[in-house]
TrEMBL record:
One of its GO terms (molecular function) is hydrolase activity. InterPro entries: AmpC-like (IPR050491), Beta-lactam-related (IPR001466), Beta-lactam/transpept-like (IPR012338). Keywords: Hydrolase, Signal. Residues 46-335 form the Beta-lactamase-related domain. Residues 1-21 form the signal peptide. The keyword Signal applies. This is Class A beta-lactamase-related serine hydrolase. It comes from Algoriphagus formosus. The keyword Methyltransferase does not apply.
């Protein structure tokens, strides 16, 4: 995911076996989203399609808070790393045409990148190159809103170095897909936007899908926000930074058409699709697998600035789910589960938004730096007024919500922090993991 912060995040969907009811219950879904809207927890658009036909869609919140411009089902959002699916499709099209090979070396294009002579296009697609993720560097926050040239981006990526031997393991890196973008542009002698139009958006008539530019709410484009005691407008990433790793803008309906045609064989061959969806260490080639009980969807999620997105397709059921958000103060995984539970006839869990008042004395007792022997990530806790702020190693400061005695949450990623001031300890929970921390 291309985002300005990445806590220790594990996207977790329920993955046990269960029997489902056959009747969808979207009345409860409406009430679920009405609750999120009332408590100011989420702004976005969601969409479900079966056999290419919409069965549920809803939009809540604002495309522009200042002007009180409402979101609609056709509002355009910056989709972040879902863009990687488009880039992967373009690479496979080039391979099918004999213009590129999955075994081709990065050194043929960018020999200045460490280990370029050992890194293949295939390893870039599968995040097995070892190239450091440039968005993880603290320097990223100093330039992400300013335009960069190809030479500047390649230099940034090359200077980031290598973090493991190519093909020894997989680790997510936006650098891989920025380089793939440049390779495509050099191969065809055309811009990434031109390739998108000629090869994907034009043939599929995706009229609202393109590389984003400065956000224009008057053209039904959503601004993005983060929650810091109230909704705060996010700065905008310049599209020259993420490119094919995260610079596409789209709508829920366009994305549904894209993934449905991808799995129908309209964009790449059956053989290429099989390679694209082949998983190793949890990574496909520009695609992931998401479990839902005994079912599995294929697709990608994304995050850029305050935007969070998900595109998922269940091939056997011919079911597509899209969620696009421009403001989130809630665990988006719970939103995904609510939508799927409603579709499959299960009762959904309605969240409780009870808040907990923390005294100034209590707040003071939590402040300081905490370290763990289980994770290399350190947490530094400060305060702004009555709000507890956490800053993880090398990452921006994030406000937390008090939910119970000594307990704080960052709901967007399901992170929970539980303090024991008398012992100077902290328990950090996320993605099914529990980690012990000690105050330094």
């Amino acid at each position: 995911m291309l985002r300005k912060f990445t806590l220790y995040l594990s996207l977790f969907w329920l993955s046990s076996t269960s029997l489902f009811g056959q009747k969808s219950n979207f009345e409860q879904t409406d009430r679920f989203f009405d609750s999120l809207d009332f408590y100011d927890k989420y702004m976005g658009t969601v969409f479900i399609a079966k056999n290419g036909e919409p069965v549920y869609q809803k939009a809540i919140g604002y495309a522009d808070l200042e002007k009180q411009q409402k979101l609609t089902p056709t509002t355009k959002f910056n989709i972040g790393s879902i863009s990687k699916m488009f880039t992967s499709v373009l690479i496979f099209q080039a391979v099918e045409e004999g213009k590129l090979s999955l075994d081709q070396k990065l050194a043929d294009f960018y020999p200045s990148v460490p280990n370029a002579e050992a890194i293949t296009i295939d390893q870039l697609l599968r995040h097995r190159s070892g190239i450091a993720n440039f968005t993880n560097s603290p320097l990223y926050l100093t330039y992400y809103t300013k335009p960069k040239t190809e030479d500047e981006m390649v230099k940034i990526i090359a200077e980031g170095g290598s973090i493991f031997t190519p093909d020894s393991k997989a680790e997510y890196s936006n650098s891989n897909y920025v380089l793939l973008t440049f390779i495509l542009e050099e191969t065809y002698g055309k811009s990434f936007q031109e390739l998108l139009e000629e090869r994907i958006t034009g043939p599929l008539k995706l009229e609202h899908t393109q590389i984003f530019d400065e956000i224009k709410p008057e053209e039904n484009e959503a601004r993005s926000y983060s929650f810091k005691d109230n909704w705060t407008l996010e700065a905008e990433t310049d599209p020259s930074i993420p490119l094919g790793a995260g610079a596409i803008q789209s709508t829920v309906a366009d994305l549904a058409v894209f993934i449905e045609n991808l799995f129908a064989g309209e964009l790449i061959s059956k053989e290429s699709l099989a390679k694209m969806t082949e998983l190793q260490d949890g990574f496909g080639r520009g695609i992931f697998s998401f479990p839902y009980y005994d079912r599995k969807a294929l697709g990608h999620n994304g995050g850029i600035d305050g935007f969070q997105s998900l595109l998922a397709h269940f091939p056997e059921e011919k079911l597509t789910l899209v969620t696009l958000a421009n403001a989130v103060n809630f665990n988006t995984n719970d939103i995904t589960l609510a939508l799927l539970d409603s579709y499959f006839g299960k009762e959904i869990k309605f969240p409780s938004f009870q808040s907990y008042a923390v005294s100034p004395e209590q707040l003071e007792s939590y402040l300081g730096e905490y370290a763990s022997e289980q994770l290399p990530l350190k947490f530094n806790f400060t305060k702004e007024g009555k709000i507890l702020i956490v800053q993880a190693t090398g990452q921006p400061a994030i406000p937390l919500e008090a939910t119970a005695e000594h307990t704080f949450e960052f709901r967007q990623v399901g992170a929970i922090f539980i303090f024991d001031p008398s012992k100077g300890t902290l328990t950090f929970k996320q993605g099914g993991g529990t980690f012990a921390y000690q105050k330094q």
